[in-house]
Design brief:
single chain; alpha/beta; binds zinc ion
């Protein structure tokens, strides 16, 4: 067994869930031969209640707030980073021996949200491995981790499940239009499930998709006004996917994100030149960067939407 494991792969495919299950199976007193925790012993019960004394989950406060349903409470916004204090607080845990005489496990997720100070603090712990202390790092951006941390981890790359597996899983979760939901989430099933929970936002995004299908009637200013309530990066992201499909429909006759709109995308894209599409895509790329801290979401939307209309301006 290594002292640290890095689970990496696309966002929303179940890496944390896998890491948690692995941790639970190491702590379970009756793990099955296939490594599945029994879910009945004391250790499993503590683990599932989040009270196992030999396990620590380290994640940004913003994630904890979402899990506790407190992200909309007033006051200071919870941090999106794993702070150095969070890593330092681990020292009492990592210096003790295990309560149950087995492993002590720390799961850090998403590992790339550690800032320089917290990453260095973690590195110190990783450099002095102690017996039966085991770290699980979960990341969808491992390239943002310190090379010195990476070199101390055994990396395991998790593949995105196939479209068939993803769709049938979403169907079992009673998601409407599982094919579309999966494609919109970049084929990550858990992300698709999460996005479908954002009902207000997903309704707005669906209405945006309905509008951009008829570019000549697309009322850029009115839609920009309406959408300023939802997260700008979602709007830009949706546009990027739509434009990716327009370009793909034009060049290859196939689409990725909107499979049920293939015919329409082929028809729409036949009216625009590849050059125009490329230019619009680079505009969207810049917009995506700004969309996380927009000065004025409505103005940003207006500019994207008007450029989109402009693509079709010379056509009928
Ligand atoms: Zn168990």
């Amino acid at each position: 067994m290594p002292h640290a494991l890095l689970i990496k792969g696309a966002k929303g495919i179940g890496k944390v869930e896998l890491g948690l299950m692995f941790a639970q199976s190491l702590l379970c007193s009756a793990t099955s031969e296939t490594g599945i925790p029994c879910c009945q012993c004391d250790a499993c019960r503590w683990f599932e209640q989040g009270t196992h004394p030999d396990f620590r989950l380290v994640q940004p406060d913003s994630l904890t707030a979402v899990e506790d349903g407190k992200e909309k409470e007033g006051g200071k916004k919870p941090s999106r980073e794993i702070s150095v204090e969070q890593i330092r607080e681990l020292s009492t845990f990592t210096n003790l021996s295990a309560h149950q005489g087995g492993y002590r496990i720390v799961l850090v997720h998403p590992a790339e949200t550690m800032n320089t100070n917290s990453a260095n603090a973690l590195l110190k712990t990783l450099e002095e491995p102690s017996d039966r202390l085991f770290f699980i790092l979960v990341s969808h951006r491992p390239q943002h981790l310190l090379a010195t941390i990476l070199s101390r981890c055994l990396s395991v790359a998790i593949k995105t499940p196939s479209i068939e597996v993803g769709t049938s899983w979403l169907k079992a979760q009673k998601i409407k239009n599982p094919d579309n939901a999966l494609a919109l989430a970049g084929f990550a099933p858990l992300l698709a499930l999460q996005q479908s929970d954002l009902s207000e936002e997903s309704e707005e995004i669906n209405s945006l998709i309905a509008e951009i299908q008829i570019p000549h009637k697309f009322n850029a200013l009115a839609v920009a006004e309406r959408l300023q309530r939802i997260a700008p990066n979602l709007v830009v992201h949706c546009f990027q996917q739509w434009c990716y499909d327009l370009a793909s429909a034009k060049l290859t006759g196939r689409v990725r994100y909107f499979p049920d709109k293939l015919d329409l995308l082929v028809k729409l894209s036949s009216d625009i030149s590849s050059m125009q599409l490329l230019r619009f895509q680079s505009e969207l790329k810049i917009a995506k960067r700004e969309s996380f801290h927009p000065l004025n979401a409505r103005l940003q939307f207006e500019s994207i939407f008007l450029s989109y209309r402009q693509l079709f301006a010379s056509t009928k």
